[in-house]
């Protein structure tokens, strides 16, 4: 298939954001081009134009770690096939430090992780938002009201006749997760889970069902006009629309646990808890932190399952705006709509530790 590039635009923008009384000046440049092998490559450059050192969370400079690009075809968002992770809240070593005048430049192949299979104009920009983007201040309990930090670039445009995702990177596409391995009582396993791991997963799934049932019961017995500390801590001020969103999300999570063919994969060696491909229900990849967690409690195995199931587009389609309890509490205060889009907020509401009525 031929790939015709009609237009490539590289635009530079200086975005100045207020963060703890500092004004980081980051020059963001994005260019997009088709390589000779048919890949569509985006080159990202972030330059610190401020006078002092600027930190940026490393996850938001790596497409294999986060959904860092907005890609649209003819003005409509295209499907993203990459993973969503549950991580520990970031610490200082997770940030890249840019000195004054220093640049970070990386190139990423897009067509393996974005649906670029149809002909049209594709608009690509760097577009990230997080309460952790410039620091781990979300972990500071004294921080009362914190805004979601955002960094974006103008658009680079490329015209394509269409390109199919290739190879193993295609596994995030719907229906491409591969067949399940052995199954026990309707729960299936891939990635060479050993007997001990299978036992732990089955027990954790039962615990996830328990805390999800508790969440559904709470939401059924309360309303937008009758919330309590449990709801307000994790989701903030309630409106009818927001409350209905929470109800729908937990009904869908509960349905996934009770009625859907959930598969767990034990092959991940990352330090994270787990990850999923949102377009590939209902397969959950379990990583090292999952096995080290308690079955119940804060950042538990049961809570991790709730977190990951909420990511699936067929369930709640949540994102990872912030990680950790302190950040999630601050998000509920500063932006309740984003709290209802945050997977950790759903997990902490379900785990309910410390216990709140």
Automatic annotation (TrEMBL):
<feature type="domain" description="Lysine-specific metallo-endopeptidase">
    <location>
        <begin position="217"/>
        <end position="351"/>
    </location>
</feature>
<keyword id="KW-0862">Zinc</keyword>
<dbReference type="GO" id="GO:0004222">
    <property type="term" value="F:metalloendopeptidase activity"/>
</dbReference>
<dbReference type="InterPro" id="IPR029463">
    <property type="entry name" value="Lys_MEP"/>
</dbReference>
<dbReference type="Pfam" id="PF14521">
    <property type="entry name" value="Aspzincin_M35"/>
</dbReference>
<keyword id="KW-0378">Hydrolase</keyword>
<dbReference type="GO" id="GO:0046872">
    <property type="term" value="F:metal ion binding"/>
</dbReference>
<protein>
    <submittedName>
        <fullName>Peptidase M35</fullName>
    </submittedName>
</protein>
<keyword id="KW-0479">Metal-binding</keyword>
<dbReference type="InterPro" id="IPR050414">
    <property type="entry name" value="Fungal_M35_metalloproteases"/>
</dbReference>
<dbReference type="InterPro" id="IPR024079">
    <property type="entry name" value="MetalloPept_cat_dom_sf"/>
</dbReference>
<keyword id="KW-0482">Metalloprotease</keyword>
<dbReference type="GO" id="GO:0006508">
    <property type="term" value="P:proteolysis"/>
</dbReference>
<dbReference type="InterPro" id="IPR034115">
    <property type="entry name" value="M35_peptidyl-Lys"/>
</dbReference>
<keyword id="KW-0732">Signal</keyword>
<keyword id="KW-0645">Protease</keyword>
<comment type="similarity">
    <text>Belongs to the peptidase M35 family.</text>
</comment>
<feature type="signal peptide">
    <location>
        <begin position="1"/>
        <end position="21"/>
    </location>
</feature>
């Amino acid at each position: 298939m031929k790939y015709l590039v009609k237009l490539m635009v590289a635009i530079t923008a200086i975005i100045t954001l207020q963060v703890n009384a500092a004004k980081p000046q980051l020059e963001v440049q994005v260019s997009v081009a088709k390589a000779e092998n048919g890949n569509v490559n985006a080159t990202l450059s972030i330059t610190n134009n401020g006078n002092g050192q600027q930190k940026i969370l490393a996850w938001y400079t790596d497409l294999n770690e986060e959904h860092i690009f907005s890609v649209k075809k003819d003005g409509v968002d295209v499907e993203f096939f990459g993973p969503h992770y549950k991580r520990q809240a970031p610490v200082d070593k997770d940030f890249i430090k840019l000195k004054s005048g220093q640049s970070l430049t990386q190139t990423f192949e897009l067509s393996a992780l974005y649906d670029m299979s149809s002909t049209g104009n594709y608009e690509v920009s760097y577009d990230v938002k997080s309460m952790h983007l410039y620091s781990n201040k979300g972990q500071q309990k004294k921080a009362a009201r914190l805004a979601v930090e955002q960094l974006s670039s103008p658009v680079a445009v490329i015209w394509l006749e269409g390109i199919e995702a290739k190879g193993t990177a295609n596994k995030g596409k719907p229906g491409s997760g591969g067949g399940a391995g052995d199954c026990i009582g309707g729960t299936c396993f891939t990635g060479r889970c050993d007997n001990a791991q299978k036992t732990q997963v089955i027990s954790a799934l039962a615990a996830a069902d328990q805390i999800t049932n508790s969440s559904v019961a709470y939401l059924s017995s309360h309303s937008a006009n009758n919330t309590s500390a449990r709801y307000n801590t994790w989701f903030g001020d309630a409106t009818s629309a927001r409350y209905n969103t929470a109800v729908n999300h937990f009904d869908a999570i509960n349905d996934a646990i009770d009625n859907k063919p959930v598969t767990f994969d034990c092959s991940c060696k990352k330090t994270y808890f787990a990850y999923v491909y949102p377009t590939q229900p209902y397969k959950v990849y379990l990583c090292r932190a999952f096995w080290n967690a308690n079955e119940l409690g804060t950042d538990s195995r049961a809570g991790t399952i709730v977190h990951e199931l909420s990511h699936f587009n067929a369930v709640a389609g949540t994102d990872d705006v912030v990680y950790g309890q302190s950040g999630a509490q601050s998000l509920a205060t500063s932006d309740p709509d984003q709290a209802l889009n945050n997977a950790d907020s759903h997990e902490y509401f379900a785990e309910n530790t410390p216990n709140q009525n």
